[in-house]
């Protein structure tokens, strides 16, 4: 590369500056990337670290919901900060444990799974607690999961929980906070 530059800019007073810049650029482009940047698999495998201000299990308000004869132990995310955190950084959920999201307004509330380590199922509910949609959500994805109609509540449970317990659109959950 420097031989080509020498022929092109041999008679130029700027040759030294141009050649030096080109060599620095070529060196930078040829330099290897750090191991974590060069190997996306190792970057993805790095454990996520929960921010210090995030709530841990048991620090959220709690409510017991019922779906027919099934009792659900649900942490409640009713503030913007709690809804944004959701179940991020959790490694597991108990058999009938989940998180209830409560919104101030009836709207199309969409969810994603960034920094959520466990796959989940979500049931969207209207203002009366009637299930309108149930969806499956893969862990660690940024796909949007949106209901087909507006609602006030969403309940996240372990993946497959709603199907395993026969909970489907049209059923009503009891015990929802207002």
UniProtKB/TrEMBL annotation:
Assigned keywords, A-Z: Signal
Signal peptide: 1-37
Species for this entry: Pararobbsia alpina
Pfam families the UniProt entry points to: DUF192
Keyword Thylakoid belongs to the record: no
Name assigned to this protein: DUF192 domain-containing protein
UniProt-listed Gene3D superfamilies: Protein of unknown function DUF192 (2.60.120.1140)
